[in-house]
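Record 1 of the preview.
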Amino acid sequence: RILTGDVPKRADWKKLNRKATFKMDYKARSGKIQGILKDMKKTFADNLSEAEAKEAEAVKDHKALMETKNEQKTSAEEALASMEKETGARTLNKEEAQQEVDGLK
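->
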């Protein structure tokens, strides 16, 4: 270079002496994010436990309702069966009464 006369100009000292940003200390920013995630996890866990408690209560209520409805169904079926017997007996009595009336004429 010297022989050809291609000597570099003086180095730009401002450029060389500026702060090296790649050497700057690392500032931990993940602590805030981890705090948010921790809060979210706690909220989700609380919501899950509340939902499970509500679901258990709903299942218990449903079972009680179904038990009551099955009892009502059974009693209604028994009442219907006894009504059929009564209706049959009434029909038989009505037919007998009609025969007696026809016999008297």
